[in-house]
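Why does residue order matter? Because the sequence determines the fold. Keep that principle in mind as you read this record.
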Amino acid sequence: MTNNKAFVYGEIAIDNIINAPHAVDREIDTFVIEDHYMIGGLASNVAVLLSLWQTPVALSGYALG
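Structure:
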């Protein structure tokens, strides 16, 4: 195991980001232009932030939908 300065444990999830041409409205049909899946969850977000600060980090946790 490497010498990590931080160990993050917590929620790991997958975020589905959907792009639409306008805000959702009951009066207007809305169609999805594109969607992306990104890593999400509190533990994942903290680990990414720490790594951007050049801190060696390890991530473990439990998966949510």
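The CA atoms of residues 17 and 36 lie 5 Å apart.
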